[in-house]
Model the fold of this input.
Amino acid sequence: MTRYIILLTGEHPTIPIAEIRAILQGRRIGLFEIYDQVVRLDTSQDLCKEIAERCAYVRACYREVFMCKAELDTILKYLRRVDFTPFIHNRSFAVRVLRIREYSKDLSTVQLEKKIGAFLKERFKAKVDLKSPNVLLQGILTSDIFLLGILMITSRRRDIIRRGSKYKPFTHPSALDPRIARAMVNMARIYERGVLLDPFSGTGTVVVESAVIGIESIGIDIDRRMIYGSLKNVVEFKAYDKCSLILADATKLPLRENSINAIVTDPPYGRSASTYGYEPSKLIENLLYSSVRVLKKGGIIVLMHPKEYFRQVRRTPLRVLEKHVIEVHSGLTRVISILKYQELSKEGNQTVSETSLF
Done:
């Protein structure tokens, strides 16, 4: 096992961690350290690569060289202890230092880059190449600590963004952001040979993000135009090998009992997307009861919904594992609820983890 540093985007305080936690749970890895926009864990290079490639809110993964207090003398002391020969011998390098938010403002990132670079050049006779180095050494100032790592892999976040609305052949004002869709798919905890269902598939964002990472995906929508339109998106993004689309009512799912491992969905609420005569809160409640029939025991539902509809969620035989609150804009709040299908205890439904933006 090697220690790695995972750098997060910082776009949301809880969703990036939830993505990583869900992937690690599938590998039975539960211990990791969390700092502001940084996760530190002991794992394999393959798993580190998987996290970087799958997660929507990860920027890059680094092999850790050292961690210390964010003090110049301490940083230089730790630097002198490391033999960098295996990393930069006969190879060019560059040093970058990133400050997270306002941490350690007494330290200049530019001066740190120069001091670390000068030390490595003099001690190990390494060649500096600021434009296209063989090795990138990344320093990170966060939570009053300094971490130094060697870049292993950058995320595929740009690929996810390029599947956004302006790149789709078919779109709609209610279409989900592909970054949120990918994070929701990751939080569904499907690891191998699982089947994911989106019963309100709309433009197909969830099923596309699921299918492109190798998960068998089923999209259902009651609107024929959405089915035809989402098929265009599935073809455009080459997700057809793992994706099926069905014209049907989400409250009367035409699927076998216990056939689905996870459900990931963003139901319509009657603003930019029609509820086809259903009252929105009743639509969510009916969906959840319909979902319980097709979901395997222990299966996960990742549901985005208005904050005021959380009561409907708690009326069902689903355990609330997590809540993540997203402030869309002033006056509009959405909640991502992570639910697990199991028989209720006598005490009823219990929320075991609640995380919020505000």
About this structure: The chain has two domains: 2-154, 162-341.
